[in-house]
Design brief:
Helices cover about 45% and strands about 20% of the residues. By secondary structure, it is an alpha/beta fold. The protein has a domain of about 140 residues: 3-Layer(aba) Sandwich (Rossmann fold). The strands form 2 sheets. Strands 2-7-1-8-9 form a 5-stranded parallel beta sheet, sandwiched between helices. It has a 4-stranded mixed beta sheet with strand order 4-3-6-5. Strand 5 and strand 6 form a beta hairpin. Helix 5 runs antiparallel to helix 6. The model has no long low-confidence stretch (mean pLDDT about 90).
């Protein structure tokens, strides 16, 4: 029996330094049917960035027109200057083609996606403890202690949003966390609401 199903939209959030990108990359290395969502932005391309691959580069006028037409699952105005958003059409086309699409965004963006796309699966990634989160932030060595403290304070607020998510995954050991993500995806594929094709096929055979 051939399956006819769309892919899953999986929204991943969590504090800085918990390894969200590392986990999604590991998943993509193990499964060619997983894609990252491509965001639209009004910032200029950086050297080596390709339109439609790294971002969809838009003028501010183009971006605002997309907002007015309701073409984003979520969008944000960063630092009062540049816009970033998740185009609905790109995500829906990838899902229709059977790809599972990962969207890595902050908790505010995740809540907007949840409202705009109720079928999305929300996953919160965290470290084993707050002290471990701080240790990882310091260990990156890319920010001043003042910036680390600011991100650490933000992490406390983000943790409070866990109850709004469908799943929480603790990234202690990468392979173990990746296995948990794979288990979540498999469980979601088996949900009855995603298996209408199976019910219809069984009923057809029984006629």
């Amino acid at each position: 029996m051939k399956e006819q199903r769309n892919g899953l939209l999986l929204v991943v959030s969590g504090p800085s330094g918990v390894g969200k990108g590392t986990l999604v990359k590991a998943l993509m290395d193990r499964n060619s049917r997983i894609k990252m969502s491509v965001s639209a932005t009004t910032r200029a391309p950086r050297p080596g960035e390709i339109d439609g691959v790294h971002y969809f580069f838009k003028t501010e006028e183009e971006f605002k027109a997309m907002v007015d037409r309701g073409e984003f699952l979520e969008y944000i105005h960063v630092f009062g200057s540049k816009y970033y958003g998740t185009p609905r059409s790109f995500v829906e086309q990838q899902l229709a083609d059977g790809f599972d699409v990962f969207l890595e965004i902050d908790v505010q963006g995740a809540m907007k996606v949840k409202q705009a796309f109720p079928d999305a699966v929300l996953i919160f990634i965290t470290a084993p403890s707050m002290s471990e989160i701080k240790s990882r932030l310091i260990g990156r060595g890319t920010e001043t202690m003042e910036q680390v403290e600011k991100r650490f304070a933000t992490a406390f607020e983000e943790i409070k949003m866990i109850p709004e998510y469908d799943y929480v995954v603790v990234n202690d050991v990468v392979d173990k966390a990746v296995h948990h993500l794979e288990a979540i995806m498999e469980a979601e594929r088996c949900r009855t609401v995603r298996s209408a094709y199976l019910t219809e096929a069984i009923e057809e055979i029984g006629r």
